[in-house]
Amino acid sequence: MATTLGTHITNFDATPPNTVNSRLHGGVLKAAVDTFELADTANDDAHIVFKVPVDAILHSVKMAADDLGSAGTVDIGFHYKAIDGTYTAVDVDAIASAIDVNTAATGLTEYRFEAANINTANQAAYVLAGLTARPAYEDLYVSISTPAGTTAVGTVTMQIQYTE
């Protein structure tokens, strides 16, 4: 019977031991939950939901929504906050795209790996957002955007889990 070691155990067992990023092994898991009423939206509207450090490792991104009318889709992605207080899109569909919110209500669904493969599980938020280098700003904002606007007001719940 063969015994193999995971990446972290291999690093711990090395002589001398190799450092393992605490965001990936032994870090503090943080969570954020928000429930809000989303107004009927126009094409390309954005709703800023959570603030996470640019180096955070996102483990889970979930969303549930009422039926938001007879039209509309939602993307989940990232914005950043400029010095003047405005929010600018980094990648609006980095996490999920074209979630149908117009046919029926959606139950609480995991979207973390909808747009990104499982090989991104260890990547920092700024890498998931498509940035090639760590930005000068400290935080990214998880957002929902409506590439196709919605036609009704409804309740949306989002949950995220991350380590930093």
Task: Describe the secondary structure blueprint for this structure.
Elements: H1 7-13, E1 29-38, E2 45-53, E3 57-65, E4 73-81, E5 87-100, E6 106-110, H2 125-128, E7 139-148, E8 154-163
Antiparallel strand pairs: 1-8, 2-7, 3-6, 3-8, 4-5, 4-7
Task: Please characterize this protein's 3D structure.
With 164 residues, the chain is mainly beta. The protein has a single domain (23-163), classed as Jelly Rolls, CATH 2.60.120. The protein has two helices and eight strands; from the N terminus they run αββββββαββ. It has helices at residues 7-13, 125-128; strands at residues 29-38, 45-53, 57-65, 73-81, 87-100, 106-110, 139-148, 154-163. The strands form two sheets. Strands 1-8-3-6 form a four-stranded antiparallel sheet, with no helix packed on it. It has a four-stranded antiparallel sheet with strand order 2-7-4-5. The protein is elongated.
Instruction: Classify the fold: give the CATH topology.
Output: Jelly Rolls
Strand content: over 45%
The CATH C-level name is Mainly Beta
- What is the mean predicted local confidence, pLDDT? 93
Number of strands: 8
Largest sheet entry? 4 strands, antiparallel
CATH architecture: Sandwich
Strand arrangement across the biggest beta sheet:
1-8-3-6
The rounded distance between the terminal residues' Cα atoms is 37 Å
Order of helices and strands: HEEEEEEHEE
Helix content: under 10%
Apparent shape: elongated
Radius of gyration: 18 Å
